[in-house]
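(Deposited chain)
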Amino acid sequence: MTTVQPTIGYPRKRERTRRRLLRAGLTSLADRGPAGISAGGIATAAGVATGTFYNHFPTVDDFFDAIANQVGQGVEIGQATLTEIEHDPATRVAIGVLQLLHMADTDPASASAFVTLAAARPDFRARVRTIVSDAIADGVEARRFDIEVGSASTDVVLGSTLQSMRSLILGETTHAEAAGVARLVLRLLGVEPQEIDAIVNQAMTAAATPI
């Protein structure tokens, strides 16, 4: 009796299809918002049959979970890597702000999805808020930030960054303003004014190389 071995390329093809669906979903989310997303629309955008969508995601809600998890994991991994290579909390915050604004400039679909998920998905928003809150706590502990740890300081950083991303995505501002946003965030966190320009200049160099 001959045993048929699984084709080596099949798992890779399946993973490529999944990535295409997720990428199409990011674009659809950016263009239409959560209410405008459907299994058929995502499948068409990805160039596959609707049945293929359901082979990967049982429901559209499962698809949203996958997108939120993918984007959230990317942010968490980037932050963890950044913490390992940059020891100054103030510089880490500036780099994080600059990288998000860089994404808004170079990959508006992903950036728009990030902004939309932060507004529409409490679980995703909680993940991002935890990252921001932890970064602020590190800076306060290191006496780099003269501000209290809590919801107010988290809202200041996250709100300023998300609004700047929206403005950049909508063409209301340009990426040339990114350094100014980073300076503003550091001022709001209570970083010594005479240190801010040097921190942002260092962060701009680091942010030019993706983490």
Remarks:
- The chain has ten helices and no strands.
